[in-house]
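Quality-control log, excerpt.
Job 1 of 2 completed; input and output follow.
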Amino acid sequence: MDSYSVLYSSSHRTGLLSGFQRLRSQRKMCDVVLEAGGVSFPCHRALLASSSEYFWALFGETTAERLAASVSLPAITPEGLDAILDFLYSGWLSVSPPTLPDVLEAARYLQVEPAVSICERFITDGLNADNCCSYANLAEHHGLSDALDAANQTIAMEMGALLKQSKDDLLRLNIQSLMVVLDADEIPGVKEVELIKLALDWLNENGPLPLLKSNLLLSRLRFGLVAPSDLTDLSHACRAMATPLIRSQLTRALEYHRLGSAQPIRQSRQSTLRVSPNRVLLVGGGSGPDWPEQQLLAFDPRSRKFSSLSCSLPLRLRNHCVCSVGGFLFVIGGEEVTEGDDDGKTSVTVATSNQVWRYDPRFDRWEKVGSMLERRVQFTCCVVEDAIYAIGGRHTRSDTNTHTSVASVEFYDMVTGAWRRGATMPRPLYGHACAVLDNNIYVSGGQHGNRGIIRGSNHGDTQNDHRESSREVLFWNLKGKEWEKRASMSIARFSHRMATAHDHIYALLGMYEPFCDIEQYDSQSDHWTRLRPLLIGSFNYGMVSTPSGKLLVFGGRRWSDGQEVIVKSVLEYDTKKDHWREICQLPRPLTGTECTLLPLPD
């Protein structure tokens, strides 16, 4: 058998279309005329039938149109038909925002799916605040799911601008898109009461709707984010707000506002802010260690930008602890620094505090909650199963100016709003760090206030009493009655930091450490491993572990040429790659800040 080859020419197909286009422009060999809006378009029946399911069926063997000299297409416009015919004859689709509706209508009607796909991509690529509502309506009308999803997301992200500049566009939005938008977890810069007013205005503009539909729309609103006084007014706003379903949601929102201290553990979708993923909140600290500021800085890990919160800390604090529960910020203990006037001279007073303050970002409001049983500074805190644990520390007796270290542990009961005693550590400890892994608490390092096994008692130790930093690691779970020892760190640490990421615990350097080494703890093997050292040795910095498993280090102090320097650097440690890098800088030098993750409104 003789051999043979099959070769392909891409230019032949292009030339074939060019030939048909030339014949069409010269009106040669055209065997059918398409009419739309009084405009005639001579065409070739064979090309149309081979390019469109609609024309294949129209020119079939049993149809009346198969031999007709002209075919009328009243459902589409001349502009739309012209664009689609150009596409069938050349492969190029001419489309612009003004012609898009006509072109898409023609492409969908004539079943030219490649042209429909091009129109969908045109919508998705060109979305902005000016066209997202009209594009959402267009995509919903033609069943373009990808374009509709993209348009709905754009509406949610641009809602602030739309409410100010294009509310009429929102009132003309299709109900499916409006429901999706009101279901969004992120609508930046918009208060919930504005979304409620939008929904009610939309119902007035497009109603009356069946109560089932209005219920489906209004049930996507988050009434727990609205002040009680506004909720009362809204309940009488219109008939749609008076249905049993919506009234029950309003009742639950009012009950949520009356929960008091239990609010953080009774969170639901109805009371969850519509904000971007948690930002890092930097609480307190200052440009020097002795005079802390009352500032609150928010850091967005995505944009790597800082912003200041409008509110400030109620007190000037240092060596305090912070944590977040249920979207609330808790600021606990520390040293309260106040300025006074002593015989005409400015004086600074430092007092150890047991106060606890709670910040609600939903309403930008501070509230003083139940105080700790003991005053604490240089202690540590953590959250396990929605309870805040305060562990160890020390306080200063103002009458004798001596430090008293404590071994006690207490936890904050959200239901009662009171602190209760927990399992006491084996000995007093301060300057230590803690982390939570699998609902178990690990405490490392610090300095022992007293020697020996001491339970539930405090012993004074003077201010000039210097002790060795500890390598010891203690472990406690909620069911245990006593603390247990785990493998010690390879480095003795004091005033250091610990964090959990990817099922491991990381210990970072503190004060008095000659090197910048960090180490990782594996709870399965009960073993510590040294990792890549910190880029720049520092202490008194803020640190947080992000959901992606990266550690962020903010500011701090370090020694340079025999002098103490406050730094502005923000460092990132990738726990998977064991890699450090500087990602940005703080707006100003900062030391003594405490960090936590918190959802914050824009």
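Job 2 of 2 completed; input and output follow.
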Amino acid sequence: MASPPSWRLWVGMVLVVLVERVEGVEVPEVPGVLQRCIYDEVQPRVRVVRAAPALPHGPPDGPRSPLTSGQHTGHPGGRSIPEQSAPPTPDPPQPIRIQTWVPRESDNLSEAEEGRLEAAVEEGVRVVSSLLSVNRVRGLLLLSRDINKYCKFLWRNSSTVNYNRCGRANNNYRSETCLDVTISDDHLAGCAVYREADSPRRTVLRPEGAGLSDTDFLLYLQVQNTDKCRAERHVLAYAAHCRTDPRGRPVAGVVVICRDRLTAAAYVHQTTVQTVIHELFHALGFSKDLFSTWRDCSSSSSDGSGQMRIYTPSVVSAMQKQLVSTDPELGGPLENLDVSPGRVSSHWESRVLQGSIMTAALGDSTTVRIDPVTLAALRDTGWYAVNLSRAQSLVWGDGEGSSFGSLSTCRDNSSSFFCTGSGLGCHFLHLHKGECQTDEYLEGCRVYKPLKNGSECWKEENSRWSSEDEIFGSDSCCFFSSLIRQVCDPFVQSSASVAGRCYRHRCTGPNRYQVQVFGSGWVDCPAGGTIQIKGFQGSVFCPDRRFCLYFDISPLSEDVNSLPASNFRQVRLHTCTFLAETNF
């Protein structure tokens, strides 16, 4: 497998992002949410240019161009020439090469800010390149020009030699853009005018650009404090695609990163990495505007409960595996919020796929997963070979059945993944203490979200927030508990309400583990049961199928995507799971 491309400061692509946790900043609108994606607001503003099929022998009056993603000079959608030999056999898919280009109009960054940006984008690109492979562009990548911009008149008579070629130039034509980024002429195919319907003579308007070598996707990366950045304080960045190849695969896009999100006070590295990955997935094809062009002609419709879903083979299979169901209605659930009836979103429904990297709002970076359903969707585009073995365990809803996450069942206490009221407990990954909350995307369903302060059980410094029985550290996780120290006086009754507490934990087998609270020894904690601890009143509740089953969920590192795959399934009995430190 070829190594992913190195970072290059060039000129790139559009990204939709979400908000980060900044000390002292309240986020009342969406409790617990750090980032919100506005991709579906941005993409409709972008005119997407699709390249015409490449002519096999080039134009009769000019040299053959290097292989491009766009039309050859003067051949925007021109008639095909009969092939005289079989097309070359495509090379096997290889990791996608994503080239990053920073436009000159981006705000000047300090050395520290540039370093943060470079590290986050480089890591995000590396992860995506390790997941997705393509039939690589042969030769140079050149982007198509928009014939509707440079041409005022097209030859429309199909019997003429220059059918669909430009007959008259638009004198006001100046440049091509990708969202608000001006595309360099070096990245663009040329264009020409054919002044007579049946004459091969032409006038070149713009010559062929130099093109880009070793590139399958061109990512324009703009750093500015735009109007959207100022208006949307929950947005870190936003993105869109703007060019596709003849098969419809996106080959260029833009990510706009909000300038002030790179300052030291606002910056969270892994949050930015996950945002880059989220937006890259959008720009590479996870988009409602492209669903209909996927290889499997994805259909989207509502199920019996009104939930909009996308139905493609790999997505249906991944959903059935996640929920352990054979229900054929289990397509990929799409976000309903702010979507007109019968229309679809470019995000998964949070109630059903909480924690997925492709939900509309991302939480704390330790809770976000590059999940099997998302990778299955990218596979079903038909443009990518996807390394499904590197999907991260989603955990949310695992084995809960086909009705999981529906509005009719999330409030009936039938699933431990949801909660009622506003009490304290544990986030479903059990890495954080949490509070039972809802948000606009959950539509009234409630889940335990990480507390604002001191929620991370694995951080020793959070011990200042602890109760007398808690232990914080690298091998600690969250348990529902009502423990309270026993009082010697038999006439004094004491009790405590059930809440999330941080205790040490170690695995002894699949779904088998022990617990240690402050001042106690190790005690077996039977999954699905409760235990008492000597010296305490009350009980510790032992979750079933949450610990010691998922090999890639670890509290030891927030930088989960940077660790090598060779660490997968490395058993560490003192952590919250059987534990691979990561899949990547």
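Post-run check on job 2. Residues 111-131 form the longest helix (21 residues).
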